[in-house]
Structure formats: C-alpha cells, structure tokens
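so my prof wants the structure for this chain in the tokens format not the other one, which i didnt know existed until like an hour ago. anyway here's the sequence
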Amino acid sequence: MEYAAAEELKRRVDELESLVGTLLLGLTRGEKEMYSTVRSTTSLNFDDANGQVLQVLDAILENRFSAATAAADEVRQALALALAELDECGLDAPRHRFVDISLYVRDPDAYAHSEDILEEIEVVMQEFGLEVIEDFPAQLGSLWKRWIARTAHAIEAARQTEEYEILREALELHHLGQPQADIDERYARMAASIYRAFEDADELALKFGALLAVKHTTDDGRVNFSAVTLSTRQLRTLNAHPEILTEPGKAFQRLGELSSGDGP
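here's what i got, hopefully its the right format
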C-alpha cells in the first residue's frame, strides 16, 4: 500500500474510533446529542470500509439508544470487525483489541462442574493478557457462557493472529500427548487449562477470539478434538450465527457452509 493511501486509511480509522468512543460515552450518559454532533461532521461515508460500522451506529442511535449494554456490545463487535478488515488492507497499528469469548457445553450435568470449567477459561484469559469488560450471565440448559475482553496492552493484528496460531498448535500437541519443547511455557499453560476445561464434557465448543476449539464424542465413544484459527470472514459468520457453537459435532461444517454462502 502506498504511503498516502495508508495515511488516509489511518485517518479514517482514527475518526471511526473517535466516533465509536463518542457514541459509547453518549450511551453511558444518555445524551444522544454527543453522537449526533460528531456524526454530522464526519467525513466517513457508507461506501468505504467503515460503512458497516456506520450503519450499526446509526441504527443504535435511531432505534435502540436506551438499550445501552446491548448497543455497546454490538458497537464493539462491529468496530472489531471493521478494524480487522482495515488491518488486512495493510494498516496494522498497535491497538487495544476486543476479544469475544463464548463457551458452550452440551451436558446435562454441566452445572455440576461449571465452576471448574469457567475457572480454567478465566485462567486462559489472564494468561493471554486480557481484561474482562463484560461478563454475561450463563444461559440455562447445558452451559452457554460469554465474555467480552480487551487486550491489556496495544498489540498489532499480525502479532495477535500469531498468538492464536501458537495457542492452536499448543492445543494440538497437548491433545496428541506430544512434547511441547518448542512452545512457549505460557501457551503450554493455556493449552493445559483449556484441555482441563474440556475433560468433563462430551460435547463442547470454545470460541476464544479467532480461535475455535471443539470436542465431539461419537455414539461409539470416540472423542474428536479439533482447533482452528478463524479468518475474518469466518469470524464474522460465527458472530452472526453463534448457534453454530451449540452443535459441536457439526460446528466446522456449518461454519464452512455459512461462510461460503452455501447454507440457508
């Protein structure tokens, strides 16, 4: 990307982040005018890479301004996806990045050991350098839990992607019972915690930012464990269809169908 184009892209990202920050502050204070004033002077439009986010922001202002928590959550998801797209366009500046974490356990006895499972996931978040900013209540029936976290330190997208891949590799080696001499001890500890969280459930899916880990037990008792790092498109699909996690045995198939447009 040419220098001038990169600088223009950076300017638009900075303006977008300022706009999002203004909306979130307005949601907290209940003051629509804060966002309206900034929105009317922005040079951003619906034809560039920020269009999806602008549509979300305007919809929140017009329709759901009073639903502060839900609105802020949607803004964060939209902004995270927009920044991921811009990173792929060539702008990769250190930023505090939002990380969406969802855990689904299909197990009639899930609540009997839910405390241990959640504790292991929280250990992973701490080791990964995340600060939890939203801790949603677990949903009834099986166990479905969600967190929104933010990186404690600014990080480039490429480095964060690398960390997801290292964690995926550590998980795979842990599952296979192979030595992890080439894996940083921190990632080995995270992999061990995730694997311990998986131990007491036959069906489980964990979305940890751009990492998706799934455990599925077949009718004849064979255990399948898989972990992949998600592309921006796959991540967008999973955010739009979180119900994919409720069928761990079909999660990758459904994600592939919906990401490619083959699904309903």
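also thought this was worth mentioning. The longest helix spans residues 3-29.
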